[in-house]
Amino acid sequence: MELRHLRYFVAVAETLHFTRAAEMLGISQPPLSQQIQRLEHEIGTPLLKRMTRGVELTDAGSAFLPDARAIVQLADHALEKARGVARGISGQMSLGFASSVAFCAPVFTLIQCFQTRYPAMELITREENMALLMQDLHEGLLDAAFIRLPCESSKAFNLKVVATERMMIALPAGHRLSQQRTIALSQLAEETLIMFPREVAPSLYELIVSTCLRAGFSDTGFRQAPQIASSLAMAGAGCGIALVPASLCCVSHPQLVFCEIEDNTLFTDIAFAWRRNHPAKPVLHLLSLIGEASD
Questions:
Q1: In CATH, what class is 3-87?
Q2: pTM of the prediction?
């Protein structure tokens, strides 16, 4: 039994007219009649009663129609689904996020635009530290990821910068310098610097540490927080100061104050990263949106 035979039968059964069904299908009437006869021969019973002014369904035809219609609809759905996946407008895309990107507005504006333009695409998202993120991307467990630069291991991937952030100083609200809008790092050299673990973002970690050491910080004056975001809670509790990306300044904490760094040289890029060979179609669509946003 061929799918086209079912499609032809459904057309005739729904119009109850060979000529109108043939016009709807884009074929001539004689071949349509022949194909219906072949279907009836295969089934072993008439499905239609040929009348002077059209056709009627036999009892067998009435019983056969719902299943035939469902099969045709399922085949059409499968066809559109396959075509959508091939064009990258439906299916799934696995997308990773560095933990420190969680508050970056441009990234999530892009995601919202992507989901609006491709509503049939399901995004499977995962938040990881940078080390795990780059490993998953390398092993093909992720199609792409939003990462924070600098990142040494990112050199193995294609990168597109989507935002640049300056680093800010997070101080306890009662700190002696909390009323200043801009603070030199050297003014904080005696403070405890709360740092995220090196494996969260190794290159950014090294950049911050080296900059602070040049500003007079002691290499023993560092305290570790589980993540970049959690360093804010520790600073608010009076455990020290923290240097965080500007996007984290949106965090509302009554015991925190954010200040600019004087003569700031601490900047970090947020980039879209994907494998160099054979990127998935949805990745190319998201890249296109990134290009539109930067125009």
A1: mainly alpha
A2: 0.69
